[in-house]
Give the backbone structure.
Amino acid sequence: QNLLAEKVEQLMEWSSRRSVIRMNGDKFRRFVKAPPRNYSVIVMFTALQPQRQCSVCRQANEEYQVLANSWRYSSAFSNKLFFTIVDYDEGADVFQQLNMNSAPTFMHFPPKGKPKRADTFDLQRIGFAAEQLAKWIADRTDVHIRVFRPPNYSGTIALALLVSLVGGLLYLRRNNLEFIYNKTGWAMAALCVVFAMTSGQMWNHIRGPPYAHKNPQNGQVSYIHGSSQAQFVAESHIILLLS
């Protein structure tokens, strides 16, 4: 009991400083793998160092940070769930121990027993959006996390600039607005929208899949997903160009 209390106290102290606890091999084996443990641990296995050139890892890490911050500042926050991260360059031995050859990967380590198949998040099929991760965590731990994202005004600013640009063009050509009734122009615009939707842009927006997949072991990059149930963002761009 004393050992368990010490582990929980240490994890809570780390969590008070940072929502996602960084772990090397020793910390992982002590706080995640070794009993006793009465808490769940979510681990993101990743490769964030610049030399790894894993853009997907950086994107997934941003979503992971959003989720961990949402939990850390939630009124339901407790010592029953902790968010951690193991970087390949800080814990290569952990990757080898788990026979892991891809990143990023999310795993849930339950309070008792070993992780089951469902305790590995299906990133390739579902994507890595914070909301999808929160749903998976709720299924595995019964801990429900409401995702709070920091304000992002880039979309509002872009829309305001677009409206201003269109309004300015209409004002400058106020004496000659025949182009508005140009059927060819509207047809081209409609085709662009159709091609964008056909390529899977809406699916990407909803699912948040990675742009591509890079194997950290051999560096091979895959732009086409091997399953018919999922896709990479790169596939949409390829289909859009072919269209």
